[in-house]
Amino acid sequence: MSSTAIALLLTLAPLAAFVLALVVFPRQRRVASATVVGAGALSLGGALWLLRAGPMDAPQLWPWFGAERGTMAFGLLLDGPNLLFGAVVALVALAVMVYSLGYMAGDRGWSRYFALLALFAWSMLSFVYAANLLQMFIFWELVGLASFLLIGFWYEKPAAAAAARKAFIMTRIGDVGLMIGMILLFNATGTLDVRELSSPQLLGQIPQARLALIALLFFAGVVGKSAQFPLHTWLPDAMEGPTPVSALLHSATMVAAGVYLFARFHPLFLAVHYVGQIVLGVALGTALLAATMALVERDIKRVLAYSSISQLGFMLVGLAVGSLHAGLFHLVTHAFFKALLFLCAGAYIHHYGSNDLVVLGRAGGRTQRWTTLGLIVGAGALAGLPPLAGFFSKEAVLAALAEHQPLPVVALAYLCSFLTAYYSFRMVFLIVRPNPGSAAVAPAAAEHDHHAPSATHAGGERAMLGPIIVLTALAAVAGLGGAYIGRMAGVTPEHPHTLGMALAIAVALAGVGLAWLEFGRRGAAQLGFVARVPALQTLFERRWYIDAFYAAVVGRLLDGVSRLCARVEARGLDASVDGMARGTVAGGRAASDVQGGRLQVYIGASVLLLAVACYLVGAL
Amino acid sequence: MTLQTLLLVALALFCIGLYGVLSRRHLVGVLVGLELMLNAASLNLLAFSRAGMGDAVTGQVIVLFIIGLAAAEVALALSIIVALYRRRRSVDIDRLHELRG
Amino acid sequence: MLENAMLENVRVLGSAAWVFVALALIGGALAVTLPNILHAIFSLALSLVGVALLFLALGSPFVAAMQVLIYVGGISVAMVFAVMFAFALREGPAGAARRRRGLAGAAALGVFAALGPLIARASWSPHFARNDWTVAALGRALLQHYNVVFEALSVVLLLAIVGAIIVARREPPQ
Fold first, then answer.
1. In angstroms, rounded to a whole number, what is the distance separating the alpha carbons of residues B60 and C137?
2. Which of A246, B77, C41, C99 is least buried, going by the fewest C-beta atoms within 10 A?
């Protein structure tokens, strides 16, 4: 079979599964989920096959519609980065699907859930293999839709519904920028094809100011989708959705779509120098911001959410300084270890019925052997400890940074690494080495996931362990694929400096060490160093008051606009319509007065009409 | 005085009479207005006749007939008014009108 | 041409013709606005005299005489008699009087505005003819050409009188 056919099969299989699970088999739950998992497996198989077959540089296009500036086509692009990311997406998707068989057992919306997973898989894969920007945008939006539906999966929970709305609206804000950028780009170049837009000659034709504007507008879309400052507040709230959804969408794939877009249009973003600087600033700032918020968080999923924001920023940092390799490498490894971490978190939540780190630890979290192993490996990869995957990819980013950027910037990046290591192992130690007598207090209200603790799903838990084990292995060894990734992307991998490597290891160990001191060792107080500065603690806990600011300003602004519109409607539009009605009725009543039976009215009217008639006749 | 002017005078008289017909509440008041209108028409006819349009004598004859008919009409109208008053004790148009729209 | 003829006629009375016009119009205006009905009828009589004088000024003394005899002498007096029978001298309370007067005024003005310009702008082609403008001719016309109408008018008058008597008489006791 040709690559094109395989690609079509692997992208459309989930679509078929979606339709089947939603429309045909919703009552037959086993069949529905089996269809979706089967499609997922098919997609993975196809993606791996394509990876082995190697990249095809020329896209397969079918003409779609013609516009004045150029024709739009629909097609598949099967070059290196696409194949790579596609395989990652398919792998994580399948892992999550299998995991969900255990996690979501007993849920009322089983078939709907799997159907939505299939919808997401279709949209995401079609996004990855898209040949032009318009196509990417369509699936970008579809991915956003799937995210909305999945975050708000338990729609009876008001918090979940609100979180889904918030996510959708915030990403939409970014998407507006992306769309405008797209329009401007098309206007300037007459094409939206990915390959054509990567050529420096074409980009060179666009005036610099216009190019910078387009790049920044695209970046707005990236900011929205990948939850960077200032559109980052939706991601922590999105944790209201089921944990497998968080693993798939909000760590590994959907939020990575923004970063991936950046990578795809790397030449466009780097064409104007100060755009890169702006992106670097935003990304690095976000990375640090999110890391601080993770330092004090007690909800395990929220810690991981902040971590995702932070790591996405880190990827963008790598891309912004010009290293496509660093960005893609970290994207791939992050997908594995973050998904792993989420799945482990889900396993704990599923078993103990609580999200809180302290509660999980004291309930005996360490007794879940495979899950705990996965947790430690995932956290180690996140912290950047060798020889786990995260070390190599983080090293690549730091090396790229050290090459061109001034010392303060590099220092900030290392600070971020330190904080990352610290909070990851804070999480680990709170679970693995709980200290019942420590100063950490269990929360009064248990804020937990949808399920009650389920001790009855032995089989279910087996389904959950499989993916965890697979991802653990990948998180451990994926770091060795750096060179391979470089080859696929067609770029030279970063050459690691020994000094840089040593520094990175040192920083990571320092973070782990501090976490051990504060949380891990016997008799530790289990209060972070941040807790000693209550002002900082509050600042980080309240997410730097950004959420509050948005609620106050934006909420009030929108409120005002809505109220204004309501008033215009009531007094203006409604009133005018009412006025017309009333005027008509009044006019009718006045007109009927003429026929009121009063003689003098009759006479007056007739004479007047006669006079007017004479006038008209005379005037003509 | 030109023909135009005289005609306009007649028209003015006609309009005055029309106003009387339309605005009066007393039945005889309406009749007064009506008489003014008839007179205006007579004036018109005589003016045209004098100006040589149509037969010279015809205008005067018509005016004579108008006067005669007006007399007959007024006689009948007044008798109706008297009869109305006997039955309804009022000659106010607003209290008398039974026709409804 | 007519102007000359008219002036010829009018010049005899000079500006008196305008006095007759004023008489007619003012009398009419008073007739339609005075609240006391007897005053209104007298004003009507005044206006009719004015019109009669205009008839005279236009050169038709017979018609003028008839106007005074019949209209002023007969019709106006008959009206006064009828009013005495009906005993309502003043108009009733002015309820919607203002509105009615406003609309009536509007209608009247409308008619004037519609027909006035027509009259003013029309191109009459008057010419003066004096030949048959005599009472003898008038009498001849009445009894020869318009004989039937003349007789019919007499019958109408008779019928009117009879009708008036029948309508206005009291119900005979059964």
1. 10
2. C99
Bridge partners for A66 per DSSP = A71
pLDDT value at position B72?
95
Please give the ipTM for the structure prediction.
0.91
Q: What is the DSSP secondary structure assignment for residue A496, as one 8-state letter? A: -
Q: Answer yes or no: is pLDDT of B62 > 90.
A: yes
Task: Report if residue B96 sits inside a domain.
Answer: no
CATH of the domain at B10: 1.10.287.3510
Distance CA A357, CA A366 (A): 12
Residue C144 lies in a domain: yes
Instruction: State the residue range of the domain holding C50.
Output: 1-90
B22 touches chain A (CB under 8 A): yes
Q: Would you call C120 and B19 a contact, using CB atoms and an 8 Å cutoff?
A: no
- Which CATH number goes with the domain that contains C6? 1.20.120.1200
Q: Are residues C5 and C82 in the same domain?
A: yes
- Provide the number of structural domains found in chain B: 1
- Chain A residues touching chain C at CB-CB below 8 Å: 600, 604-605, 607-608, 611-612, 614-615, 618-619
Q: Is residue C160 part of a domain?
A: yes
Of A367, A229, A227, A371, which Cα lies nearest the Cα of A300? A371
Judged by a CB distance cut-off of 8 A, whether residue B91 touches chain C is yes
Q: Where are the domains of chain A?
A: 279-438+452-528, 551-619
Residue C67: inside a domain:
yes
Mutation for B interface: C111, C119, C158, most B CBs within 10 A:
C119
Residue located via tokens 């839709």: A145
Q: Work out the end-to-end distance of chain B between its first and last CA atoms, rounded to an integer number of angstroms.
A: 46
Distance of CA B30 to the CA centre of its chain: 9
Contacts of B45 in chain C (CB under 8 A): none
Q: What is the pLDDT along chain C (174 residues), one digit of tens a residue?
A: 344 444 444 333 346 788 899 999 999 999 999 988 899 999 999 999 999 999 988 888 899 999 999 999 999 999 998 888 776 666 655 555 777 788 899 899 999 999 998 888 877 766 665 555 678 888 888 899 899 999 999 999 999 999 999 988 877 766
The structure tokens 């997973």 sit at A117
Contacts of C100 in chain A (CB under 8 A): 600
In the structure, what pLDDT confidence band is assigned to residue B5 with cuts at 50, 70 and 90?
confident
With CB atoms and an 8 Å threshold, state whether A604 touches C100. no
Residues 30-59 of chain B with CB under 8 A from chain C are: 31-33, 35-36, 39, 42-43, 46-47, 50-53, 55-58
Condensed to tens digits (0 to 9), the pLDDT of residues A12-30 reads 889 988 988 888 877 888 8
Residue in A63, A128, A68, A59 with CA at minimum distance from that of residue A93 = A128
**Do C15 and C84 belong together in one domain?**
yes
CA distance A579 to chain B (A): 26
DSSP assignments along A171-230, one per residue = HHHHHHHHHHHHHHHHHHHS--BTTGGG-HHHHHHS-HHHHHHHHHHHHHHHHHHTT-TT
| Chain B interface includes A610 (CB < 8 A) | no
Query: How far apart are alpha carbons C86 and C97 in whole angstroms?
Result: 21
What confidence tier does B64 reach under pLDDT thresholds 50, 70, 90? very high
Least confident of A410-414, B11-15, C47-51: A410-414
User: To which H or E segment does residue A72 belong?
Assistant: strand A71-76
Q: Is residue C120 part of a domain?
A: no
Residues C139 and C74 in one domain: no
Instruction: Name chain A contacts of C117, Cβ cutoff 8 Å.
Output: 615
Please name the residues in contact with C7: beta carbons below 8 A apart, sequence gap of 6 or more: B1
Q: Which residue has the tokens 């300037």?
A: A188
Confirm whether B98 is domain-assigned: no
User: What pLDDT does A583 receive?
Assistant: 92
Subunits adjacent to chain C (3 or more Cβ pairs under 8 Å): A, B
Quick check: is B54 in a domain? yes
